[in-house]
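Let's practice the habit of predicting before peeking. Look at the sequence and jot down your guess about where helices and strands might fall. Then scroll down.
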Amino acid sequence: MVNPEPSSDPSPSGKETPGTEARTSDRDEGRRGARGTVLVGVDDSPEAEAAVRWALVYADAVRADLTVLHAWYLTYEYGWISELPAPGDPTVVARQQIEEMLAKARTATGVDADAVPATITIVAGRPAATLVEAAEHADLIVVGRRGRGGFAGLQLGSVSAQVVAHARCAVTVVHLDDSRRGHSDAG
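Done guessing? Here is the structure:
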């Protein structure tokens, strides 16, 4: 996950052998010895719950930290109807739901907070673009396959397809049925 320290095995002459230093990517530069990061994108779907469970188990196996990211985006096509009460703060509602989702996933997987520290991040923005941008600092991004649009036969939902196409790190798409059997599409 994180590249090893550069080799300091000296040659018999006492000098470092040329070419023995480890190569690191820009993302790994300065992180030697640090825990990696698994980023999981969530919404309020059962597929997101499956993605969180999968990400927790994986982060535990590779000793990585977990970042749970929810991006929300509201459009006002017809304006706000003044007779209706204004909606609550979406970040407060989302944080409560994500904390509950994470607690349920920890119970289901047996992975506790000491083994896999988790950070919850909630931002206003288009989900796919926000996840791709956040993945710049992750070793792996995990998303659920939701596909709630009008194209039920698609293998990926629009957000997971965009993340797979544009993320600069490894991506795992967790299918709800597959997560119960321990399988996923890794890319």
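How did you do? The first strand starts at residue 37 and ends at 41.
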